[in-house]
Write a structure and sequence with these properties.
Elements (H helix, E strand, L loop, with lengths): L2 H13 L6 H5 L13 H5 L8 E5 L4 H8 L4 E6 L4 H14 L2 H8 L2 E2 L4 E2 L6 H7 L5 H13 L2 H8 L7 H7 L5 H7 L9 E4 L5 H4 L4 E5 L3 H9 L3 H10 L3 E12 L11 H8 L4 E7 L1 H6 L5 E8 L3 H12 L1
Parallel strand pairs: 1-2, 1-6, 2-5, 6-7
Antiparallel strand pairs: 3-4, 7-9, 8-9
Helix pairs in contact: 1-8, 5-7, 5-8
């Protein structure tokens, strides 16, 4: 769809027109996340992204921005939500135009833990300051929304309420450290992401390049929740069809509160399908520590190293016995 379609879909949804079927017009996708809800800093700081090519979910655009900070040279973003590209451009323009405190004041709207809202979020004054740095299509998109709605109004239309306090966001996003924020101002233009709009089942047919790293957030958790553990085999086949450079890795799922006994995604099921020798369950400081001030809580990430042809043949033979 064009930028005009994207704008009209939002306006039509807001007007609640009885004859307008929003789901059919836009496809089935959820709202944007204002910021990540994962401790990206917990695992990205240990990944060598310098001059690497990556494929990542779009979501809040924080995955893209943090990857640029760590030196990725080529980024392909895939997401079922067509608005991710405009949101990345908005954050990118804000980094270029706004100082650190202005950025936080513009984007931080709702602290879901303490039920606090910032009525100055998406204010027009800051937008006018950053809009000169937007691409032509992104400027058309956001200009059109500001003509139709206040900043707070379209914040409620486009985004979820899954947003943590600025203190938490600074801990989980490397680029939101104040010193790092000033550094990324000089590098944010180094990469122009490419975008793939579609659901996960279309990934193999649409993602044609070779990648060093693939970041899938916790999409797999939702897929297993909807389809059951049997979906893991289908998911593995999908991932095995992706083109990776030698040594490439796929971060297949984010595991919140990794020590908790109840998970839709059970570690033993994942190990059985992906192979214990090909999978790492890497732990790091958990979100509950930041959000609820708990101690000794860990999140984790499942990291899949695709086996060589020889390894795959050995694994398949073992499973047939």
């Amino acid at each position: 769809m064009s930028v005009y379609d994207d704008i009209n879909n939002i306006v039509a949804k807001s007007a609640k027109l009885n004859e307008y079927d929003y789901s059919k017009a836009t496809g089935k996708f959820s709202s944007l996340y204002p910021f990540t809800t994962e401790n990206l800093n917990g695992y990205l700081k240990d990944v060598d992204l310098k001059d690497k090519s990556i494929l990542t979910v779009g979501s809040s655009a924080d995955q893209i921005i943090n990857s640029i900070f760590y030196g990725a040279k080529a980024i392909t973003c895939f997401d079922i939500n067509p608005y991710v590209k405009y949101y990345f451009d908005l954050k990118k323009a804000a980094i270029q135009a706004l100082d650190y405190d202005e950025f936080l004041n513009y984007f931080c709207y709702y602290d879901c833990t303490n039920k606090i809202t910032n009525e100055n979020a998406f204010n027009i004054k800051s937008y006018q300051k950053l809009s000169q740095h937007l691409s032509e299509t992104s400027k058309l998109f956001w200009d059109s929304l500001y003509l139709e709605f206040s900043g707070n109004e379209f914040r409620k239309q486009l985004f979820t309420d899954d947003e943590y306090s600025a203190t938490v966001l600074k801990n989980i996003n490397t680029y939101l450290n104040k010193q790092n924020y000033n550094l990324i101002k000089t590098t944010i233009n180094n990469v122009q992401p490419k975008y793939i709009v579609g659901d996960i089942s279309e990934l193999a047919t649409k993602a044609k390049n070779k990648y060093d790293f693939v970041f899938l957030s916790n999409i797999l958790v939702y897929l297993v929740k909807l389809n059951g553990a049997d979906y893991l085999n289908k998911f593995k086949n999908l991932l095995d069809s992706l083109n990776l450079n030698d040594g490439g890795k796929i971060f297949i799922s984010y595991d919140y509160n990794a020590d908790h006994k109840f998970h839709y995604l059970k570690k033993e099921d994942v190990l059985k399908v992906f192979g214990e020798n090909n999978l790492e369950h890497k732990k790091f400081e958990g979100m509950y520590n930041f959000v609820y001030n708990e101690n000794d809580n860990y999140d984790a990430i499942y990291i899949y190293s695709k086996p060589s042809s020889k390894q795959k043949e050995s694994f398949d033979t073992k499973n047939e016995k």
